[in-house]
Amino acid sequence: MTEYPTTELNKVKRGPKRANYEVDTVYSILDDAFLCHIGYVFKGKAIVIPTAYCRKEDKIYIHGSLKNRMMLSLLEAGDASLTVTHLDGLVLARSAFHHSANYRSVTVFGEVRRVDDPIQKMEALACILNHMVPGHWDHVRQPNEKEFNATLVLEISIDTASAKIRAEGVNDELQDYKLPIWAGVVPIKQVAFDAISDKEMLDGVEVPSTVLKYIENNK
């Protein structure tokens, strides 16, 4: 199985036994979410914000306005780092010290490129929307010329990455197992509820099949 080389940049130093450098594992964690957190520097200050994304092969695409300071800062820097995290459970130990969480996370490092080719740019925008709700691009009004020209799309190459995963129970001190204190795991997942149609919806317009399928798959 293909792995990213372990370097000073992507090496997991805290909890290395939970590190995973397999490309397929990294892709799987990225594909199970559509919100990432990106770090950048603006006027000497470090800032981290969430943004929607999609992955296509070994590239990640994000979008924003032409004046978006994060997008412009990333372009100026020429490289980026982003993270994705899934919270899968609360690990409640007998001791406060050993409380933890089960999770799957990925950190990506790569070069940043502006997408100017109109076809590739439109494909990237469709990719981002379809990453939220698969197939939904075909059920919306697509960007007009003004909207399209006002949107900046960036491509971040997945040059290297690392995953970190915890999927286990409580790890208490041996002497604490004799204490009359409850311990265990509370599983957590993100769920979708029934869609709420916009109050200005025209009569006869039904919820698209893509939305209904998304809800069914994420109950």
UniProtKB/TrEMBL annotation:
Pfam families the UniProt entry points to: Pyridox_ox_2
Source organism superkingdom: Bacteria
Residues making up the signal peptide according to the UniProt record: none
InterPro entries for the chain: Pyridox_Oxase-rel, Split_barrel_FMN-bd
Protein known as: Pyridoxamine 5'-phosphate oxidase family protein
